Amino acid sequence: MSSKSFVSPGSRNATEVFAVHGADPEVLAFAMAKYSRSSLSMRESLREIGAQRAEQFLNTFYFQYGHRSIADLAHIAFAVERLSLLAALVLADEQRWDGQERSTRYQNFLESGWYLPDFGSDSGSERLFAETVANLNQAYQRTTAAVLEVLRQRVRRPEEMKPESYERTLRARAFDVARYLLPLATNTSLGQIVSARTLETQVSRLLSHPAAEIRDLGRRLREAASGPAWNVNAQAASAFVEKLAAIQHDAAAELAAEAAQVFGREVRTAPTLVKYAQPNPYEIETRRELAQAAAEVLAELPCEGPPYAAVDLVERTESLEVEIAATLLYSASHHPYRRIRDLVAGLPAARVAELVDLGFRHRGRHDEALRAFHAGAALRFDLLMDIGAFRDMHRHRRCTQIVQGFTDAHGYELPGSGDLPAGVDILAEAGALDDYRSAVESAHAASRRIAAGAAPEAAQSALYLLPLATRVRSLFKMDFAEAQYIAELRSAPAGHFSYRRVAWEMFLALQRQHPALAKHIRVTDFTEPIDILKR
Q1: Helix H segments across 298-386?
Q2: Burial code of 196-222, b = ≥16 C-beta within 10 A, e = fewer?
Q3: Alpha-carbon gap, residue 222 to 133, rounded angstroms
Q4: 327 lies in some domain
Q5: How many folded domains does the chain comprise?
Q6: The domain that contains 354 carries what CATH number?
Q7: pLDDT by residue (tens digit) across 244-260?
Q8: Is 153 exposed, middle or buried (0-12, 13-18, 19+ CB in 10 A)?
Q9: d(CA 103, CA 309)
Q10: In this structure, are 287 and 252 located in the same domain?
């Protein structure tokens, strides 16, 4: 029999592709999940599915049977406005995350306002906090103006460049320098589009955080997902319904009533998928025990002092067990990874196993393992950079990032400018160096003073005073393709000079260890002067 007899008419080349718009996220997730359980088409599924049926399905398969991949099919857009820079960093610390935050380059952050922690009856700390933020904001304003004036004197406007474009470009570069003075209390705004699965873990993680603002942010996200969403078309729909109602005809009146019912329906984006998101005991208890273990194991490890290495590409010499144990301790300390790794490598195997077990001890039935267990990557960069630069490097999601807690223990950066010829100290030339140093060091001193207070959340409240100039340590684990991407993208002339330097040093470290591979990276030499008007 010919094989052609098995082919029915119309069965060839029948692929159809269409976009879907207007379905509630959970209804759409249910419809897509039905592909594995039903022969119905997407159109047929959406016609028969309502919010109630979606909720019943998700309650069964998501919560009872643990089919978490279903929540990957429901994506929700959020606007998160007037949160602190500190909270924004914590919020965005998801490996499956898509979002955008306000830029410190294109906007004047003095207009943002700032977050004030609740100091209760400690009026002295509250007053010191407010005075320190005001001092940093004033220094930010003075530095912006002084650096902008120097740039106007040093950088001539090309005839073909419009004055407004020239001024906008120089102002952005001035903001690049001044942003170092913004404290973590400064308000920002961001938008995110995440799956319900990411949202659930994000909400749980935020609810488990020791800072009150961040726990409150977790509650607000959960409420926003389960409560009525803001409808961008509501105003236009309301106007349309009013026009229909104004028509003197019975059919129009009936149509207006029907339209009002349809357009006025409340949409709740993820009322089922995030309703059980709660603080995560696994994360809370493990964080507490890791802090204790790090204090014990690393007690004899000397604190790092200057000179500080911005980039250390730590070669692989240890076992996987030692890497995991070292990474767990790294996450709960302020020491460099290499020092921790070498110390742990010298511990008895039984002690290493105990540290690994600690990372699993409190893990619940549906908890993902801690990020420290994402081990085995070929390249491990231990990075020490200012928080401002870290905010940009933090966006790289194709690598595993282990971020240590914020502290003033590593000192702070001086924004000498990689955008200007070698030897040019932009702050000194602007007459702002002493002002800058005084503002940052005063903020660090005030932060230490508040952290020493008796209030339970004093240590968390103190972090908000750290300026973006403050250095933070983080471990980036990745493959070669991601190292290539970061080096090429972040060393480009359009970038901020701080992370351009980090990307360049990452390339140099890679070149020393893997010269045959590094030659294929299209890196921009950070030491070469650039035209700051070409961005």
Answers
A1: 320-331, 337-345, 349-360
A2: bbbbbbbbbbbbbbebebbeebbebbb
A3: 30
A4: yes
A5: 3
A6: 3.30.1360
A7: 566 666 666 666 566 55
A8: exposed
A9: 27
A10: no
Express each pLDDT in 486-520 by its tens digit.
Answer: 999 999 988 888 999 999 999 999 999 999 999 99
User: Position 313: which residue type?
Assistant: L
Give the contacts of 318 (CB within 8 A, at least 6 positions apart): 326, 341, 344, 345
Mean per-residue pLDDT of the chain: 86
pTM of the model: 0.88
Are 377 and 478 a contacting pair, CB within 8 Å? yes
Judge whether residue 66 has pLDDT over 60: no
- What domain range includes position 259? 234-263
Same domain for 399 and 331: yes
Q: Are both 358 and 400 inside the same structural domain?
A: yes
My answer on whether 390 and 482 are in the same domain is yes
**Are 301 and 370 in the same domain?**
yes
Q: Which residue has the higher pLDDT, 9 or 439?
A: 439
Q: Per-residue DSSP letters for 202-250?
A: HHHHHHT-SSHHHHHHHHHHHHHHHSBPP-TTHHHHHHHHHHHHHS-SH
- Cα separation, 446 vs 136, whole angstroms: 12
Q: 306 and 313 in contact (C-beta within 8 Å)?
A: no
Which pLDDT score is estimated for 302?
Answer: 84
Residues 479 and 407 placed together within one structural domain of the fold: yes
